[in-house]
Amino acid sequence: MIRLLDNSDKENILKFLSKEKELNLFIIGDILNFGFDKPFQKVWAEFDQEDNIIAVLLKHHNNFIFYSRENYNCDAFCEIISKEKFKVFSGEKSIIENIKCRFKFLNENLNIFCKLDKNDYIPIKNDNVSLVKVMSKENIEYNILEEIALMYQSIDEFLNPASFEQLKADIESGSSRIFYIEEDGIIVSTARTGAENDGLAMVLSVATMEGYREKGYATACIAKLCSDLLKEGKTLCLFYDNPNAGRIYKKIGFKQIGFWVMLVK
To answer: Which of 27, 76, 87, 198 is the most exposed place for a label (fewest CB within 10 A)?
Structure first.
């Protein structure tokens, strides 16, 4: 049986997802930060005959994420997905293979999925760290947030850049922080967190504007982000497909734990 979840399912679904908490960071973070009754978020789960959860599908804004390590009802989940408007379907490569082949996608992006905890962290020296500013729910500046959203839209590598409305919701909820550098009166480099909770955070939107690259700005943003969140006792996760970025992440101490696929309609 597959059904939409509500707040009464919270403890049960989080216990199920915690089996692979790093791979399920997006789903865990979105449930903790936004719950089950927001208009932009839905969570479905399939239950076996003993009422145990065996599969989870989350829709957050225009993104779907799926997770299961069991034999699940692929036809039923595909029917749910087909009735919803969405732009991106994503998940761990081996997990989403069966659903992936049921739909036509214009773009498939395969990424290396990594995690970093304080025991593996290797601090790096970067003179630009002092330039990094941090926006959180305590100090939101909406004009700057709008500029950052426009910057994301201009980055060709971003398949599904966050909108101003999504960034606003994430920052206000405390599920995201943005680390950024300004130069010449504009935002030129960023890294941000997503799906933050007490123990985990995803690293997202690492980018530098054309004309300001090769200065170490993105590395500075990442260094500041990692330092701040690891001090808070959080494990960090990220995925990447750029070898140059990968070298930076490995230098800091990120370890590969799988492959993450983003499928874009």
So the answer is: 198
